[in-house]
Amino acid sequence: MIQSRSTFLKMLGLSAAAIGLSPALTHAEPTGTKSAAVTLQLGLASYTLRKFSLDDVIKISKRLGLTAISLKSMHMPLESSAEDLRAVAEKVKAAGLRLYGAGVIYMNTEQEVETVFNYAAAAQLEMIVGVPKHSLLPMVNEKVKAHNIKVAIHNHGPGDELYSSPLDVYNKIKDLDKRIGFCIDIGHVIRIGQDPVAFIEKYKDRLYDLHMKDVDKRAADGAPIEIGRGVIPIPDVVKALKKISYQGVVAFEYEKDGDDAVPGLAESIGYVRGIMKLS
């Protein structure tokens, strides 16, 4: 049974704000269940902090106990030189964080595909979180083989003509290199009336990234909200990730409150940490 947010918080005996920064929850001990042995790595999709500098992104990530980052272009511009990209990567690494990816990045021309893979190679990224145009997928496939860099295709929900659903992604990549897979955005899945848990389990072998968030209703106009306050069954999502022994990053993409994102982000992280403790 999915616990209500209020019941969950009462069980922990903590306020949402306290949870967000609680060292005890950051290092929660396993509960003894089979799934609890699976450790999920919590990270950040830096679009969350789009109004902040890269230095702030690093500082906030460390303060909130996140260990991995996927950078958006405002924090690591696509037009950067190879030298500048290496410098960004070194700065993140020196701070004790893992720069595992970048995105979401659109690829609409052959030149953009070329640029994006050179960018990822210079920054020594593990993956590109991207949205390649369908006609460019054969080229993307060859670039993945040449660079050994994964591409996690992101679903964007209602109105997205390319990849509205993870099912749309699968239909286009099923015969391509296995390093081309999914970045499942659970908020957009809910906004098109589908089940993120089912997709997590179905596409487990090629699930390379996950955008963790919540929305206020199961509809196309569902709006971002602090995790635990919305309609996404977060406990079921966490259980599914543990069930499949997910090895990617659970990347928080908190899109509400762009100018003052830290309180809501902290609350969201605390809620998910609490669910991980209880799952």
Note the total helix count.
12
Query: In CATH, what is the homologous superfamily?
Result: Divalent-metal-dependent TIM barrel enzymes
The proportion of residues forming helix, as a percent range, comes to 40-55%
Shape annotation: globular
Low-confidence stretches: 10-34
End-to-end separation:
12 Å
Determine and state the CATH class.
Alpha Beta
Largest sheet: 8 strands, parallel, barrel
Structural class: alpha/beta
Quaternary organization? single chain
| CATH third-tier fold name | TIM Barrel
Rg: 18 Å
Please report which band the strand proportion falls in: under 5%, 5-15%, 15-25%, 25-35%, 35-45% or over 45%: 15-25%
List keywords for this structure.
single chain, 279 residues, alpha/beta, TIM Barrel, eight-stranded parallel beta barrel, two-stranded antiparallel sheet, 12 helices, globular
Tell me what you see in this structure.
With 279 residues, this protein is of the alpha/beta class. It has a single domain, classed as Divalent-metal-dependent TIM barrel enzymes (TIM Barrel), CATH 3.20.20. Helix content is 40%, strand content 18%. It contains 12 helices and 10 strands. The chain has helices spanning 5-12, 16-20, 23-26, 54-63, 82-94, 110-122, 137-147, 166-173, 186-191, 196-202, 234-243, 262-278, and strands at 41-45, 68-71, 98-107, 127-132, 150-154, 180-185, 207-212, 214-215, 224-225, 249-252. Helix 4 (54-63) links the parallel strand 1 (41-45) and strand 2. The longest helix has 17 residues, at 262-278.
